[in-house]
Amino acid sequence: MEIERKYLVTQLPDNLDQFRHLEIEQAYLCTSPTLRIRRMGDSYILTVKERLRLNSTAIHNREEEFTLSAESYNRLRAKCDSGQVSKTRYFIDLFQLSGNPDYQGLTAELDVFHGRHDGLLLVEVEFPDTERANAFVPPAWFGDDVSTEPCYRNSFLASMH
Asked: Nearest to residue 136, comparing CAs of 6, 2, 1?
């Protein structure tokens, strides 16, 4: 199970290039359940994701990932009805960045979008349990919590033409 919260970003952290980052391209075969294909660096992944409804401020998903070959990815990409989402994802160790012990073990995945979504900045944090997700106080560079807003789901962004 994946437990995460998603935020708009008000300002980028300093020295962003010091953090590991990858170029990501993804598209959707279906949105209920979500069938996503993703190229992340030199990896190709098919993800099956089903949103679960729980009493929480966090998003809860059941998620399974399967490795694809580049050829399989390209075949599936041709079958996607929606557009694609392109972004650079930065993996930011929140404890390393801030020194705040409340952030120990938490990684912020900062997405800097390209193409038709250029300028959109979203950050997600995954949590080990619902309690920690609900207790999370985001750093100052995080903006509004958009965890439950459908218009910030990547599948929705991909469908915007």
From this structure: 6
